[in-house]
Amino acid sequence: ICFLLRVGINFSSLLTNYNFCEKIKFGSPIVTTFSNIEQLRKKMNRIFSSTALLLLAQSSVITAASIRGSTQTNNNNNELTEIKVESSQCSSKTLRPLLENSQHFKELVSSYSDEALDELCSGTHQEQDTKNNRQLQTIEPIPFNQVTTRGYQFDKNYFDGGTSWNDGMYHVSKEVDAGRIPQIESALSKTPLEWPEDIVNFKSCNFNTVMCCFTHSQGTEGNLPLTTNKKANADVCHHDMETSRQASHTRNGLTIYTDGRKAELSQKDAFCTGFAWSGVADDDDTKYRANTLFEASFNDAFYKNSLVGGVQGAPMCGCIEQMPTVTKSECVKPTSVTTISTSLQVTKAIKFGPCDETNNDLSAYASKVAGADVSHKIVGEGQCTAAVDKLLMPMALKRGTAWWYAEKENWTPIVGTNDLHYPDIGPSQFTKDYEASSTKIIRRVCKSCRRSHRNIYYRRLEGKETLPEGMDLLNMLKKSWTQTNNEMGVDFELYSSYDDAINRVNAWEFCNYSSSKGFPFECGPKSQTTQQWTLYSSGSGTYAKDMAFYMSV
Question: Is the full-model pTM beyond 0.90?
């Protein structure tokens, strides 16, 4: 009985005894608050009565194979024992030919009218239980709070990307702390789950569409970027935090995640999946949309594939209008499978699968079943940059670009900040670009610096062009302008123009160094010049806020 309660079987006579079951200590006497044995006996009799009803109503567990009109036979005598059909396809028109193909089924079904068979499919046909003189009762949907049984706040925080289930800080292990998930999965394969209307993430979904985006994979070494299990499938473009105030804990604000790289250089940083529903009460995608939420988030993503964590500033799962804009989302849909036994007992199971075997795209499916256009949230491969530009245009804003002060045919960006933003190409690509450069001249553009430091050209001396082994010149430029293998007049020179650098004339006359500040620290054309150094990470004390480095081609 208590096991049935723990897996989430829900009807009032059992729920009233849930606290009683929580007080049971296995292997030790039962501790109760009942005043006498007779009161306890009556209480238990009511539980047994309700449990019997449940077992009658939910007769057998069936497989959820997606086979229209499939049959199962007895291995001993090759007789037909049951028929499975997708519930949406179940009708007298499809059932009668299948049933009449078996002599045993034919005898049983001969007395059933087409109307009775239709009722059998819909679940409205009720057989009289003559032995107990009562009709089988319909099981009510399971309340969503019975999925975790940890309360509203836990469920809300989970869908926002929080709780121990997302951060991996388990008391014992995932299998123990979240062990309820595989237990309740069995109940939810047969019983509808109530929609969590009280959780703001899923309240009033205007597009009848929900999406989940996961950014990390949970493993023995903690939460890591998505590299295992399900492969990341989406670039995250941007998010308007005003649409998800409770998740971001922010009244409003924009977060732009894309760095403006070319589409072929984009890096998938999230796995997104979701589902949509028609809004028609009897459709599987509507009736079982909460079951689909359980499957997409708790069961398949978290418990089975260890996918956790949401996009910063956005919910991990929510109505699509609350979610960040991404390039792609997969799609999952529920299907109810009806099984009819030789005694014409009907059981139903819910299975999940892709919305489309060839083009499993949430945006396309939402348009098909819900008539919803969510293309502003799922923009398509390589469309992040265009989506960001579209977002900024009404505000008279434009993304910064490293190309405002350099010609593409002559320079390759290395890294840039703020208005001259460009993603750090990294030491490996820097080395390749440096070796491929014809002149090996490095240029810093700084539009917020004083005039003498708005354009600086770094060039190694003849015979010193090849960088010594272990020298991290990129890090020196960004963060640590040190003297090792990098002394002015011995290893390199600085110039104020490209022509001077090419001709090696009019080199700067002063330079000093710092292990905590970047290029060119206090180097100057004639003398020490302060507060013009690069400080790529955090810090202050410099005017070099809007700057970018380039490599000559």
Answer: no
